[in-house]
């Protein structure tokens, strides 16, 4: 389908983007997670001041019946600002405002997984939990993304088997690098602690890493990094998918490996605390799997097959340098005797608020989940 008539025109746009914005007018794009628990929405309002903290920002609302978050007869859902980022798209003093959603009864909307995560993070603040999340995703050709066709794949048939694509270079191995580069810089500009990127095992699949971020910031930073990715790709006429198993068969799925540590794990003798945490994760394996994708574990059944560098969804395993396990202790960490563990189970479309909350409830609060 030719969608070129929908294209934006960069040179025409530049004329408007270069118009001087009044100093006392700030565009604030409020961003939130919709009823799917995966997709994000955004809308903008003008403020007459440059916001420095979320407390200064007005609570807003939106039509929740159009986002799967409420009934039409009682449609309004509140947007409560929780984090401010610089806006890499509009530049200047403009902001991206990450929000949590609050229902008419002033309770967190069902799609708001942040509220309970924030409570748990407050409880364990003394342990200083850090999270480094490796966000994998795939690029789709065609801005409608309708046919779920990976960017750069032939219209019919398949590419040469996976092998040369991971961290690959060359036009026949790396598809969509401009999106990756633009996203990296846009995240840095926004104030997200993006720590790296790489091309993944399946061609047109990529990864970026966020963190380590402490406590609730981990979820905030990953969600905003996802929003920026979709928005950057939109500029290129490319769609992003976080489907954890886009192509069945001999192609790697996509995850959101979550690297996790506490103050004790990062200190001398920390390996003992890492091994202890792993035993708590083992006991709660089933509860973690049910909460590591937005479909109660069903998405991860497709991905965690025990093949393609995954552990099996129905069996917990752990090991040093083992990329076929549920949880891996990086070799470097084992050698030095302290550091962090890697939970390899979260799916690429997981809610990082849920994943970080469950890690903390299992391993720090030692809850039986
Ligand atoms: P992999 O070898 O699994 O591909 P990556 O290099 O992609 O690992 O990601 C490692 C992640 O671990 C990074 O996001 C990094 O910020 C994070 N990380 C490093 N040290 C810690 C730590 N002490 N606690 C939590 N996360 C950490
Ligand atoms: Mn309206
Ligand atoms: Mn990685
Ligand atoms: Mn990876
Ligand atoms: Mn990893």
UniProtKB/TrEMBL annotation:
User: Residue ranges of the GS beta-grasp domain?
Assistant: 24-106
Q: Which InterPro entries match?
A: Gln_synt_N, Gln_synt_N_sf, Gln_synth/guanido_kin_cat_dom, Gln_synth_cat_dom, Gln_synth_N_conserv_site, Glutamine_Synthetase
The text of the family note is: Belongs to the glutamine synthetase family.
Lineage from the top down? Eukaryota, Viridiplantae, Streptophyta, Embryophyta, Tracheophyta
Recorded protein name is glutamine synthetase
Instruction: Tell me which Gene3D superfamilies the record gives.
Output: Glutamine synthetase, N-terminal domain, Glutamine synthetase/guanido kinase, catalytic domain
- A GO cellular component entry from the record: cytoplasm
PROSITE patterns listed in its UniProt record: GLNA_1 (PS00180), GS_BETA_GRASP (PS51986), GS_CATALYTIC (PS51987)
Spell out the molecular function terms from Gene Ontology: ATP binding; glutamine synthetase activity
Description of how the protein assembles with itself and partners: Homooctamer.
Q: What is its EC number?
A: 6.3.1.2
Q: Which UniProt keywords apply?
A: ATP-binding, Ligase, Nucleotide-binding
Catalytic reactions of this protein: L-glutamate + NH4(+) + ATP = L-glutamine + ADP + phosphate + H(+)
Q: Which organism is it from?
A: Anisodus tanguticus
Q: Which GO terms describe its biological process?
A: glutamine biosynthetic process
Q: Which residues form the GS catalytic domain?
A: 113-369
User: One Pfam family this chain carries?
Assistant: Gln-synt_N
């Amino acid at each position: 389908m030719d969608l070129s008539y929908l294209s934006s025109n960069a040179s025409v746009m530049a004329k408007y983007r270069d118009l001087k914005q009044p100093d006392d007018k700030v565009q604030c794009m409020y961003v939130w997670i919709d009823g799917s628990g995966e997709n994000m929405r955004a809308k903008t309002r003008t403020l007459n001041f440059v916001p420095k903290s979320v407390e200064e920002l007005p609570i807003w609302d939106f039509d929740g019946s159009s986002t799967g978050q409420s009934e039409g007869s009682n449609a309004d859902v509140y947007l409560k600002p929780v984090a401010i980022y610089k806006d890499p798209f509009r530049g200047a003093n403009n902001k991206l405002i990450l929000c949590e959603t609050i229902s008419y009864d002033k309770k967190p909307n069902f799609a708001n997984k942040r509220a309970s995560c924030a409570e748990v993070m407050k409880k364990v603040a003394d342990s200083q939990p850090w999270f480094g999340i490796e966000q994998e995703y795939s690029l789709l050709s065609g801005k409608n993304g309708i046919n779920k066709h990976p960017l750069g794949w032939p219209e019919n048939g398949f590419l040469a088997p996976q092998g040369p694509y991971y961290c690959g270079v060359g036009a026949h191995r790396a598809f969509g690098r401009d999106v990756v580069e633009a996203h990296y810089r846009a995240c840095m500009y926004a104030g997200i602690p993006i720590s790296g990127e790489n091309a993944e095992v399946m061609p047109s699949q990529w990864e970026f890493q966020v963190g380590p971020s402490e406590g609730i910031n981990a979820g905030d930073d990953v969600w905003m990094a996802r929003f920026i990715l979709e928005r950057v790709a939109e500029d290129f006429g490319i769609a992003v998918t976080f489907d954890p198993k886009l192509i069945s068969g001999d192609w790697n799925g996509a995850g959101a490996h979550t690297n996790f540590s506490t103050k004790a794990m990062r200190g001398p003798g920390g390996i003992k605390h890492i091994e202890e945490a792993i035993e708590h994760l083992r006991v709660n394996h089933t509860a973690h799997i049910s909460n590591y994708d937005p479909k109660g574990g069903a998405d991860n059944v497709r991905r965690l097959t025990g093949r393609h560098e995954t552990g099996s969804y129905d069996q917990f395993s752990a090991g040093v340098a083992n990329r076929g396990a549920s949880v891996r202790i990086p070799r470097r960490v084992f050698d030095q005797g302290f550091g962090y563990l890697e939970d390899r189970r979260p799916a690429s479309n997981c809610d990082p608020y849920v994943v970080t909350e469950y890690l903390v409830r299992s391993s720090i609060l030692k809850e039986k989940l």
